[in-house]
Design a protein that fits this description.
By secondary structure, this protein is mostly helical. The longest helix has about 30 residues. The protein is globular and about 55 Å long.
Length: about 140
């Protein structure tokens, strides 16, 4: 195993551990943070709303499907349009992901700086949020 793999596994472990304790602070069973799509649904439910979760999920799936179909079409106009639509779906998903991180930070009484930390240094800021003394204040 190379260094990058080890560091990636450690980073993922820190994110998972931090998210589990964030769920505990939100009065959600910690095991629910381990189920990939369901944990995102619960997070959206606690800090925003489930409609935006569905928009993010559908935009992610639609972008992936559009890109997969585009790859089968070769160099055609239709393929170019599908690649463009995939990029739009991806951008929508990214914007919603950033917004939910901002709402998560706000739900625990933190501001824009903490949102940036969650965006760019999630292996550090998720465990800090899970283990520090900030309390869940609701959406």
């Amino acid at each position: 195993m190379n260094t990058t793999t080890v560091l990636s596994i450690i980073a993922l472990g820190l994110i998972v551990l931090g998210k589990a304790f964030i769920f505990k602070k939100m009065n959600v069973e910690m095991w629910k943070s381990l189920i990939p799509i369901y944990s995102d649904y619960i997070l959206f439910k606690k800090v925003w709303n489930t409609k935006m979760f569905m928009v993010e999920l559908l935009s992610t799936v639609a972008g992936g499907v559009a890109l997969a179909v585009a790859q089968t079409l070769g160099h055609t106009t239709a393929a170019s349009l599908l690649v463009g639509s995939s990029m739009v779906f991806g951008a929508v998903s990214i914007v919603i992901s950033i917004a939910v991180l901002a709402k998560l930070a706000k739900a625990f009484g933190h501001g824009f700086g903490y949102t940036l930390g969650l965006m760019f240094l999630q292996p550090v800021f998720m465990p800090v949020l899970g283990f520090n003394n900030s309390q869940y204040q609701g959406a």
